[in-house]
Amino acid sequence: MPLSADKARRLHALSTPSGIIAAAALDQRGGLRRTLADLTGVPPEQVPAASMEEFKTEVSRALTPHASAILLEHEYGLAAAAARHPDCGLILAYESSGYDKSRPGRRMQIHEGLSARRVAALGAHAAKLLVYYNPGDDAQAMDATRALVERVGAECAGCGIAFLLEILTYDLGDASAKPRLVIEAMREFSQPVYCVDLLKVEFPCPPGPLWSRQETMRLTREASDVCAVPFIYLSAGVDNDVFVEQLQMAAECGSEFSGVLCGRATWKGGLPVYARHGAGALESWLSGEGVANIARINTALAQARPWWGKLGLVTAP
């Protein structure tokens, strides 16, 4: 499907002038609440919403001058969205937090109070949908996931907002299956029927002893080659230096990635600072280590490819 003028305009708002997406991710809800609960010694339900909002707002204010976009969610992230740098684009999460554990598979649900039109009305340039995917799991669950992506893709196309799909694969007891799952997911969801404008994907080979550097680079290149739409990498919670090394390997093997949407690798070190010493101490940490973290990642994006290259375009649309 040709890229509409509205979608092209919104993708430009998420990227640098050279077409690279250097985005920060801060749409965590349940995971962030649990971490703050562990650090403060209270049950998760006793973590105030105001604390969630304050943490996100401080991170947004400090890091968005160094990011082309930020991913947030409407439950706790609207103040952070308002505090972002004026040149920083906005992506809002569309799915509810967590997945359905009462049935086979990992089924995501759209937040009942949102639509693509409402996401756009909140000032977002893109709607982000997270899905879990393993084509070998329950067939009905996987079909429901594909149908959900089709539905959200069509809805975003209808109102001209960019559609960012985040895919988290999961194994069924065989960790060595991860690369093939990532490759299959990128092949599947870059098909035109899904109307995906940008994929947010895992590195095919997580850090560890299962794959050599040579195998990691070969599989990373294969995943890039099967993907028919622009894609960016997520950090999956690894440390900053590990993520930078992954980006360097991706560039070395010729992966056509167009940037990152990186969360915990930039700001997770600030969580204990905030939990123990408050917003002022977090602001200080972010201005030092947080900015240094995002700067290292931005440097590693030197060999990323503009997002319009995957669309077969030599110049920006």
Can you tell me the overall shape? globular
Number of domains: 1
Roughly what is the average pLDDT, rounded to an integer?
96
Structural class: alpha/beta
Under the CATH scheme, which architecture would be assigned?
A: Alpha-Beta Barrel
Cα distance spanning the termini: 14 Å
Order of helices and strands: HEHHEHEHEHEHEHEHEHHH
Q: According to CATH, what is the topology?
A: TIM Barrel
Largest sheet: 8 strands, parallel, barrel
How many strand units? 8
- Counted by DSSP, the helix tally is 12
Q: Over all CA atoms, what is the radius of gyration?
A: 18 Å
CATH superfamily: Aldolase class I
Helix content: 40-55%
What is the CATH level 1 assignment?
A: Alpha Beta
The share of residues in extended strands comes to 5-15%
Major beta sheet, strand line-up: 1-2-3-4-5-6-7-8
User: Unreliable runs, pLDDT <50, ≥5 residues?
Assistant: none
Characterization of this structure:
Helix content is 45%, strand content 13%. It has a single domain, classed as TIM Barrel, CATH 3.20.20. The protein starts with a helix and ends in a 17-residue tail after the last helix. By secondary structure, the chain is of the alpha/beta class. The chain is globular and about 45 Å long.
Task: Summarize the SSE layout with pairings.
Layout: H1 5-14, E1 21-25, H2 30-40, H3 49-63, E2 69-72, H4 78-82, E3 89-93, H5 116-121, E4 126-133, H6 139-159, E5 162-169, H7 178-189, E6 198-201, H8 213-226, E7 231-234, H9 240-253, E8 259-262, H10 264-267, H11 270-277, H12 279-300
